[in-house]
Every structure is written in C-alpha cells, then in structure tokens.
Amino acid sequence: MAPAVRGIGFGQCICTVIVLSIYASVMALTIRYFLASFGDPLPWSLCKAEWNTTCVDSSLKMGNFSGANAKSSAELFFIKDILKEANSIENGLGVPNWQLVVCLIVAWCIIGLVLIRGIQSSGKVAYFLAIFPYIVLIILLIRSVTLEGAINGILYFIIPDLNKMFDAELWYAAVTQVFYALGICFGSIIMYSSYNRFDQNVYRDVNIITTMDYMTSLLAGLIIFGILGHLAHVMGIEDIQQVTTSFMGLAFIAYPEAISKFDYIPQFFAIVFFLMLFSFCIGSNMGMANCILTTIRDRYPKIMCWKIVLAIVVFGIMIGIFYTTPGGQYLINLLDFYGASFVALILAIIELITVSWIYGVDRFCRDIEFMLKRKTSAYWRICWKFITPFIMISILLYFLATWKALTYQGQEYSTGMHMFGWCISLLGLLQLPLWMIYAIYKQTHETIIQRIKAAFKPNKNWGPCDHEISKFLCWKKVEHYK
Fold first, then answer.
1. Does the annotation list 73 as a binding residue?
2. 3-state secondary structure of 159
3. Which end of the chain is more exposed for a tag (fewer CB within 10 A), N or C?
4. Digit-coded pLDDT (tens) for 382-391
5. Helix/strand/coil for 382
C-alpha cells in the first residue's frame, strides 16, 4: 500500500512480541490458580499468620471490620504467595519463583503445540467456547450484585467523574484499553484477515465484534466493581480506589474474592472460572503468536514451521522467567507502557494517516466497494480522515504535555529503568525511519524527489492475490479513469 511506512508493521510486531510475553505470564498465573482451586478450603479465602499484615478473610460475606491499611486474603494470597512480590526493585528483580517457572513452561508448550498443529474444532465446540464464558460471567454477576455493599461499587463504576475528563492519563488509558480489548494496532487482526475470502463481509463482522466487546467489558465491569464495593463495605473504606491497587488485581483478586463467597462447592466454580480464563488466554496468545509466525514464514518460507515455533517458545520462556521474579510485576508494568501501549498508540496514528491521507480515503473506499459490493457512508469517511486522527493526535500530544513519570504501586522507577524503557520504545519507533530510508533507496528513479514520491505509492503488485480478480480490478480502474 505504501512501502515507505512498512516500518509500521515491523514496529507492531515488536509490540506484539512484548505483549505476547506478558500474556503468556498471565497464562502461567492462570494455570497456577487453576491448580490451587482444588484446595479445600480455597487457599485465598482465609488469612495466614505468616503474611504479618492486617487481613480480612475473603470468605466473609458481611462484617463491620474497619482498617485503612487492611487487605483481603485474596489480594495478599496473590501478592505474597503467588507473586512473592518485593517492596521495590532497588536490589534487583530477585530469584524466579520455581512454581511459576514450571507453569510458564507448560503455558509455552501448549502455545507451541497449538501453533504446530493448528486449531481445528467442530461447530459444536466453537459454539461451546463462545457461550461458556458468558454463562460463567452471568453466574459471577448474580453473585456479586447480591453481596452487601455491591451497589456502591456499581454506582462508582457507572457514574462518571466529570472532574477527570481533562485528565490526560484517563484518555490515554481509554485508547490503549480499546487497542487491547479489540486486538487492533498489534498486527493480529491484519494477520487473521489475510485468511478471509476476498468478499468476506467484514462490515458485518466489525459491527458484531465491537458491540459484543463493549457489552462484555460492561458485564465484566459490573462484576468487578460489585465485588470492590462489597470489599469496601467489609473493610469500612469509603473510597473504592483504596480497596485494591494491584496491577493484575482484576483477574486474580476480585474474581477469586467473589468465588470464595459461594456457599456451595466454591472449588467447582473456581476451576470453571480459571478454565474460562485459560481459554481466553489461549485465544489471545494464539492470535499474537500466529502473527509473529506468519510474519516470519511469509518472509522466509523455506524455514520449517516447527523450527520457527521452537524459537518463539524458547525465546518466550527466556523472557518470561524475568516476570516470575519478585520484581516481575515492576518489569511487566514498565514493558507494558514503554514497549506496548505507548509505541502502539504512535504507530496507530501513523497507520491511520497512511490509509486515510497517503493512500487516500477515496481509494480505500473504492477498494471496500469492490470487495463488499457496498458503498462506504460519509460517516466512516469523515471519521477515518478527520475525527479519529484528530482525537488520537490530541490525546497523544496532551498526554506528552502533561507527562508524569511512570510508577508502580506508588513507587517511582530508577533513572536506569526509565532509560531501559525508552530504549525499548525506540526499538519499535525507529522501524519507521529505517524502513522508510530502505524503501526510498530501493526505488529506481533518478532524482531523490521522484524516489520519495514513488516510495509512498502502492507497489505494482498491490492488489488481490487472485489473478482473475486482479484482471477484473484493472479493467474496472480503466473504466473509472475513462
């Protein structure tokens, strides 16, 4: 489409590698919790003396406990037993947790096997995987909203705080959350779309997926904040934000908190929930891992698939081991910002400008019309060309203008860690100028101006892979220009 900005794709692949390594560590935590779910009672439902801090049993359904520094047993189990999290990383990341290392290896082995064998399932299995998570979430919703104090958390969730509308971090977090939720701007969606039929009705697919994603996020939010409202009630805390500040608290603190309050066989619901979370992890990881695999195989088709998969798995385990240390969450928070969300936002803006302005909205809409046999409305044209680029650029500039140093759990990172983070960002962002120079150099025109212009124009082979469709498209273009 525009060879000069090929660096977008390479930069997004680097982001995908980082996010994949983080998601694989989440998958390892899911396996660890799944194994812990067979305990009776559930290990996170009761406080332990060795934690040596003010603790409230997560199995309590009501209480009049009061304590500003109190934490639930579910949170302390996650921080002290699972992560063994350090108070700071001034003395290094620490020694890896062998239990999490084993779970990480198992997680990557599963990813590798699925990559090699591929995902093949019957229609009934596909329907089950699509419906099963919603059954679990609805059960958890019913339980969470019936807890004492849950309404306070839900109201906190749905009533907006207008004072924060001018907070740059809020808008930045909202944009990057959309990236993660929909999987856009990381390359996975483009990779999957390459397997579509040429006339696949992506207009319908996009509307279904975005609507379902929004409703699922709303459903999950109601569950989470219902539980947080209950925790605030039990602990005697008025501010919901003070209940939990853990980076991964949503999945591994709030949901186990709700499950521990089930009266009957909470172990069964814990097992079912973490199976559901495991299936989510498989889906997310497979999309990103396949993106990397497809990128390498398209560029080096002679390399056998299993060799590439083995390299991805070994590299993923080597990186993931750092996440299993007591300082692992500090590192994940750093890489998630500098190597993923920040870079992804900038690359998304460049990608949007490339399609809307360099390639051109009109040309892009003609392509869509040729593929889908339907015209693109003015709404989409205006959004793609003006509204969305303006909003995203404004958010980025506002965020940079009000820049605040990255922190984790209220602690600032050292200068060396910030420098390391910026090096990771540059690794992704420098792909743009490097590949732009390469694209200009590869042009055969005489003057530099002609080379630059040619580098921003589509290649001669740009178009459908099917030769018959390409011939028809060329004829249509001739008729258009006539």
1. no
2. coil
3. C
4. 999 999 999 9
5. helix
